[in-house]
Amino acid sequence: MKHFYREGTNPEAPVLLLLHGTGGTEKDLEPVADMIDPEASVLGVKGNVSENGMARFFRRLREGVFDEEDLVARTNELHVFLDEAASAYHFDRNNIVAVGYSNGANIAGSLLFHHPSSLASAILFHPMVPIRGIDLPSLTGNRVFIGAGTNDPLIDSKETEELEQMLKNAGAQVTVHWESMGHQLSQREVLQAKSWYSEER
Predict the structure, then answer these.
(1) Is 183 considered catalytic here?
(2) At what angle do helices 68-89 and 103-114 cross, to 10 degrees?
(3) Does residue 48 contact residue 63 with C-beta atoms inside 8 Å?
(4) HSE of 123 in the Cβ direction (CA atoms, 13 Å)?
(5) Which residue is catalytic, options 20, 37, 41, 102?
(6) For this structure, is 152 an active site residue?
(7) Which of 39, 54, 125, 184 is the S-S candidate for 10 at Cβ 3.0 to 4.6 Å?
């Protein structure tokens, strides 16, 4: 997968896995990572799917409707890539914190749903429920921050609440922060994520 890796100055800090939104690049969320933890190593990944020239992490059938078969396959692909990246860059495979926005948050959520040991914790900005109708594995020990918009035109608040409950039912510790900036990622949202992230350091 196309990516970049930047080694941090604190070897004890997690590796921040950056997962962009539709049409983004592997470096889109680098400023967000710098706000959350400027000392952490950063691994930015670009989605392998193209939708009308826009990079995504998995296909969708239409707005808000995912190609679930492709979602699972791409989730597995990302999981394996993280194994390979940890070996290549010599970082702790068990200390990865995902930072995903929109489509990137959805693939991060899918990692939690399918490979719970793949991420130590996750920051999900404006995610949806990645897939329904499956039994979630135990997520005890996983911490999840969800940034959501009360007036997000793409994601109904009930969707956010459903995802929160699914993760909690699986044992994850979930914090939800609401903003009124629509689907846009706001600075205040990132600062709330930073505060949440810092609590466990």
Answers:
(1) yes
(2) 80
(3) no
(4) 27
(5) 102
(6) yes
(7) 39
Residue 201: per-residue pLDDT: 63
In the chain, the DSSP E strands lie at 3-6, 15-19, 41-45, 49-51, 54-56, 60-62, 65-66, 96-101, 121-125, 143-149, 173-179
Q: What letter represents residue 189's amino acid? A: E
Question: Which pair of structure tokens corresponds to residue 106?
Answer: 């959805």
Cβ-contact 20, 37 below 8 angstroms: no
E strands within 71-142? 96-101, 121-125
Are β-strands 3-6 and 41-45 bridged in parallel, bridged antiparallel, or unpaired? Answer: antiparallel
pTM of the predicted protein model? 0.96
The count of other CB atoms within 10 Å of the CB of residue 93 is 14
Does the pLDDT of residue 30 top 70, yes or no? yes
67 carries an active-site annotation: no
* Whole-angstrom distance, CA of residue 177 vs CA of residue 163: 13
Residue 63's pLDDT band, with cuts at 50, 70 and 90, is confident
Torsion sign (Cα): 163, 83, 197, 2: negative
Mean pLDDT of 42-65: 93
CA neighbor of 19 nearest in space, from 113, 98, 111, 75: 98
Q: Which of 79, 115, 177, 183 is catalytic?
A: 183
The string over 113-137, giving b where at least 16 C-beta atoms fall within 10 Å of a residue's C-beta and e elsewhere, is bbbbebbbbbbbbbbbbbbeeeebe
